[in-house]
Amino acid sequence: MSVTGITASNPYSNVNDLLSNVRNFKIIESTLREGEQFANAYFSRENKIKIATMLSDFGVDYIELTNPAASPQSREDCEAICKLGLKAKILTHTRCTMEDAKLACDCGVDGVDVVIGTSQFLREHSLGGKDMKAITKQALEVIEYIKSRGCEVRFSSEDSFRSDLVDLLSIYRAASNAGVGRVGVADTVGCASPRQVYDLVRTLRGCVSTDIEVHFHDDTGCAVANSFTALEAGATHIDTSVLGIGERNGICPLGALMARMMPTSRDYILSKYKVHQLKAIEDFVAETVEINVPFNNPITGFCAFTHKAGIHAKAILNSPSTYEILKPEDFGLSRQLYRYVHFTSRLTGWNAIKSRVDQLGLKMTDDQIKEVTGKIKQMADLKVMTLDESDALIRSFHLELQQAENN
Amino acid sequence: MSVTGITASNPYSNVNDLLSNVRNFKIIESTLREGEQFANAYFSRENKIKIATMLSDFGVDYIELTNPAASPQSREDCEAICKLGLKAKILTHTRCTMEDAKLACDCGVDGVDVVIGTSQFLREHSLGGKDMKAITKQALEVIEYIKSRGCEVRFSSEDSFRSDLVDLLSIYRAASNAGVGRVGVADTVGCASPRQVYDLVRTLRGCVSTDIEVHFHDDTGCAVANSFTALEAGATHIDTSVLGIGERNGICPLGALMARMMPTSRDYILSKYKVHQLKAIEDFVAETVEINVPFNNPITGFCAFTHKAGIHAKAILNSPSTYEILKPEDFGLSRQLYRYVHFTSRLTGWNAIKSRVDQLGLKMTDDQIKEVTGKIKQMADLKVMTLDESDALIRSFHLELQQAENN
Fold this sequence. Notes:
The structure is a homodimer. By secondary structure, chain A is α/β, with parallel strands linked by helices. Chain A has two domains: 26-288, TIM Barrel (Alpha-Beta Barrel); 310-406, no CATH class. In chain A, 45% of the residues lie in helices and 12% in strands. Chain A has helices at 45-58, 72-82, 98-106, 120-125, 132-148, 165-177, 194-205, 223-232, 254-272, 278-288, 310-318, 335-338, 350-359, 366-382, 387-406; strands at residues 2-3, 6-7, 26-29, 62-65, 89-95, 111-117, 152-158, 182-187, 211-216, 237-240. In chain A, the strands form two sheets. The first copy, chain A, has an eight-stranded parallel β-barrel with strand order 3-4-5-6-7-8-9-10, surrounded by seven helices. Chain A has a two-stranded antiparallel ribbon with strand order 1-2. In chain A, helix 5 runs parallel beside helix 6 (165-177) and helix 7 (194-205) runs parallel beside helix 8. The first copy, chain A, is elongated. Mean pLDDT of chain A is 87; it is low at 1-13. Chains A and B meet through helix 2, helix 4, helix 7, helix 8 and helix 9 of A and helix 2, helix 4, helix 7, helix 8 and helix 9 of B. Chains A, B: Its EC number is 2.3.3.14. Chains A, B: InterPro entries: 2-IPM_HCS-like (IPR050073), AIPM/Hcit_synth_CS (IPR002034), Aldolase_TIM (IPR013785), DRE_TIM_HCS_fun_bact (IPR048253), Homocitrate_synth (IPR011872), LeuA/HCS_post-cat (IPR054691), PYR_CT (IPR000891).
């Protein structure tokens, strides 16, 4: 089937956008750094190793760990994970100081992600009023040192969207000229909107010759959309954490990013990431930090594939892609369990009941099905109906029909 | 304090965008329609009335109810809510048929939201292969009828982002010419991205003279960002539900929309919506449909204002706006309970401990505070520390200092 200008398998094809990296991006998985800053997170070394191993198997490109300078345990855990020989590269995230950079390199990481606050807010309240010249000088020294140790280096500003644009571009340009591999844009407070993201990243894309990493907090619910929009503007690396755990309400969730990319970049995602392992990873992290997977979590939320309204159920039964752009089976989720067309409710339609009648192996005419649908809707007005009760009603109606026929 | 071109109180000011309605929009609250399609939702009349009343008090402009044609109970509930005399206008959402439209008007609603599938997917699988000419003719008859009954009428396409653009604009133009008050754009499958939304809504803005309503599902995590971007492109009405409940993983949540709009449109939001009632409404709906408020829910998630990393805690203590663009007290949430600077962890910094020492009424030098911070971090490496334990450690350290001083 073809529709004007689009194909049925991927109606969001956008192949001509040369700036876009939606089909060519990398994931920096930060559950063991940003995620450790989540209120409930206290990872033992054993759990850190398990999470790092699962994420590497899943296919993320980088795993970012807490700054080894944070505590002796953080340092030992970092060293232990570096020694695992995982497929994913190991990064750590440090302040932009020589002490932190030296310790990080000593731990054996593949790369160091340095960060420094550039907004006036942060310069006043976190960095004791430093000016941009002093910040740039400090950054270049640290960058030079990390390169001399043979590690990858990323330079990120903090609170990028409340920083002065000229200051920001100047320091990124300086970092780019100093030979960093990536520069990072961080919406540390979670207030950027997609069009701001597109503008900033596209502008930055024209100013530096490095890769561009983006880090979006979710305070205003835009972390996933901002990540996607950044890729469209030329970003190359997305920061995620499992279920989005991090400071406050967290950052772009790994699973939600997968959901966002699948309709756009299905082949790329399936070739690179073992998305059927997503649920196991989410369940393990949720258990470890003692949270419930949100009911509305993309893909793995308990109702992510549940359809209830009559008109939806009818269309879904005809063709699942009518109302679903994600397929449960892509994620290793059973179609039976996860795509549950709800028909034991007052919102049901007769098409859903017809499908159930077929499943039960009963024979009825359309008029008869419409009649029993009316009975089910009537009952559902009075009480919450279980599947068993609805089936019993269908079977008893069918029995009456047979008896009437035999008389 | 002023930063180049922006003000500190609102660094995202964007006053010169004439197309934008981010400071002038209305909410169509659909918990009692879209929300009733949520897997777990079975609202009694009593609960429907309570939810409608709470939402009207909150300040939403419209409340949308399930199609009265869905079941006898749905019809009676609709009639009962229309008779409450709420400040919010009452809408119902129907298929684009004369039968549904007549029943809706008979129930006493202020307006009818009619919807029809326009994508090729839906026309094939839900509407039995109707062509656009037949769809348009049917729509115009229904619109004319609803207007003749003195009700507001909105005409929406379904699955708008997978519909042919020319078909879509043609039918919207016809509806606009027929005198509908609003046209609706619906991302029924939840796959639209912000830049697609901006393009479609801005194009539509140039084609019709009506208000524009938008309805975004959250399958790929973009519902909030898409709603915001639609307002920037000239949309006037946003569909929400409490906690986003709806088909599959739902639509744009009312609370998350508030979070998204506050940094941009604080004065407008506070003048119009009683945002301090948000938590009570969310708690009631969550209880009614038997779900937990997600841990990462904007504003009311248990960790929405919790800071843990040392460098964050330091800045927050100096100035809350450093890392927070939302203020818990705006939402009636206690600052003490909700803005909890986490310092009983290995990621803590000495600034957070200093603040706690002050709260405990103890006196220590900065060097002494750094020393006790080291002890706390050491302990936090070994076990999860409670606030009590950390306080005990601080007090015992302080006691030792005093004893040393007295000797």
